[in-house]
Amino acid sequence: MNNNLNLNFLGIDLNNPLLTASGCFGYGLEYKDYFNPNELGAVVLKGITLEPRNGNKGIRIAETPSGMLNCVGLENPGINEFKKLLPSIKKEISIPLVANINGSVLDDYVQLAKKIELIKEIDIVELNISCPNVKDGGMAFGSNPKMARHVTHEVRKVLSKPLIVKLSPNVTNIVEISKIVEEEGADAIALINTLLGISIDIKSKKPLLGNVMGGLSGPAIKPIALRMIYQVSQQVSIPILGMGGISSTNDAIEFFMAGATCISLGSSLFSNPTLPLEIKQGLEKYLNDNGIDCISSLIGLAHPDNGVSYRERIKL
Amino acid sequence: MFLEDVIVLENINISNNYFLLKVLTKKLCTNAKAGQFFMIKSNDNSRILRRPISLHNIDGNILEFYYEALGSGTYEISNLRPNDVINIHGSLGNGFSTTPINKNIVVIGGGIGIAPMKYLIKSLLPNNNITFIAGASDSHSIKIVERFNFPNVHNIITTLDGSTGITGNVIDALNPILEKNNIDLIYTCGPFKMMEAVARLSHKHNILCEISLEERMACGIKACVGCSIITKNGMKKVCYDGPVFNSLDIIEENIGGTNE
Ligand SMILES: Cc1cc2nc3c(=O)[nH]c(=O)nc-3n(C[C@H](O)[C@H](O)[C@H](O)COP(=O)(O)OP(=O)(O)OC[C@H]3O[C@@H](n4cnc5c(N)ncnc54)[C@H](O)[C@@H]3O)c2cc1C
Ligand SMILES: Cc1cc2nc3c(=O)[nH]c(=O)nc-3n(C[C@H](O)[C@H](O)[C@H](O)COP(=O)(O)O)c2cc1C
Ligand code: FES
After folding, report:
1. What is this model's ipTM?
2. Is the link from the previous residue into A192 a cis peptide, with omega within 30 of 0?
3. With an 8 Å Cβ cutoff, is B168 touching chain A?
4. In the list A63, A301, B82, B223, which could disulfide-bond B219, CB 3.0-4.6 Å?
5. Mean per-residue pLDDT for B28-42?
6. How far is the CA of B58 from the centre of ligand 1 (A)?
């Protein structure tokens, strides 16, 4: 059994359910000295905005126990420069490309979605309404149910490409927001973005990060990510792209069992650039060892009904 | 660029918190260049980021790092014993320009910034005339220089407390050299304020100056944008476009580094 990792996600056949987490894999080619990106299922590119952004000043990275804080602040060259990068990316990457789109105000998202709609190299759009590192917008959209509804609605109107809405874990009721974006036409939900945190430099007696607050990622947030995926997948009828601290095959299996259809690898790539290959082989071995034909039969296995109803609802 | 498990040969306590680590490599040194760095993985999974450490010296297939145990990661490295295995990623970054020929060069290392200068001198020495200024606060922080036994290099040591060499800082040593000689190139690594002063003096004398910057890093390969800084040529990644920059490209006010 060689092909038991392939699956259909948002109407697209993927070689496997392994994606990258936006912002952790550059624009797709940065890791090519370590593995062929076409070994993945799809590549999620670094977040983009309408206009170029320099990101935040000062220290942007802080290590924390089993995790890290970042306040990169969506540094990116803007959509026009991004477009120019695509041909060279496409030359080396034949698997689907996912654009991660960001904005400060509603109109930014809509304008950006309109532009992305016309870019043939982009197969899927991930609407990031959960960035904690930008002053206005970003996470505000993902933590306010009304704004989440509005932005998903307006983006859906101008976008026919498959739409993933990436949610913030910095909310009290993740199920409520998930149902809202589903109602407004999201084809999938990405869970989770980073959790807000700070770190203090005891020498200067001031916050370490240039932007004071940063987003926590890495193994430290894995239990929270799993919990949210477990809760949301029991209440929605669309697939979930799961992420948050995945650093091993066993982590990946937990995410599928919690209810993720695909997973994204993020911060763990930094210290272990060949992690995708490791997990891919690990999953193949797990399926073979357990006599499981197909990765999608793991989805939601941890649910009280073993995921039967969820897999039916997402038509797997 | 390689990811390699290497075997620790020696981890010598040079003085106080300063150590010299020697590891046996297979491919890691291939194409490695002075001024480049490596990212050392912790054997403790709770430290999820690798630590960037400069290439100090290459001796055949032995790779050497000179480092200061400051925090949890570098303390862990200081506890490594012969035959321990660590995973190293590199070589990374651009490195210093090592192609000049027949030039009068001043190499200036301050404190732990002395680390990349050994291999830099080794690379430049056959074709150039080199003065090496090593500065630090006291004799402990400069002890490593005793192992720099290069013939034909003019060595100047400065310490702030005067415990060895000239009492003062590297600028006190650099000033008279620039007044009396025709210097073509200056290379420096050390505390940002020191490099800033060196750069200003170089600019005044119209001398090309290369400085090596430090930033917090996650990926080391321009994928996370964590180490980005504003330069006169736009946003640059210290891990990839650097760590070595032409001093003229650096806009002082905006360096967000740990050396401020
Ligand atoms: C390109 C480059 C080359 C370097 N070369 C050397 C060298 O040859 N010898 C040497 O002793 N040190 C060197 N440093 C500094 C060294 O990386 C830090 O001292 C080390 O990362 C501190 O780790 P820690 O766990 O001991 O400290 P902690 O403060 O516990 O580290 C916490 C986090 O902050 C990061 N961090 C802390 N201080 C620095 C710093 N000054 N620069 C970058 N990241 C930092 C760590 O990597 C880690 O992610 C270099 C840094 C860079 C960027
Ligand atoms: C340095 C860094 C940059 C990130 N940039 C983005 C981004 O541009 N857009 C986005 O939606 N998420 C971004 N994220 C969040 C990740 O995609 C992911 O949701 C989060 O890190 C959790 O996964 P992990 O623990 O595996 O890293 C970023 C994370 C990190 C660490
Ligand atoms: S450390 Fe990730 S871009 Fe430089």
Report:
1. 0.93
2. yes
3. no
4. B223
5. 97
6. 21
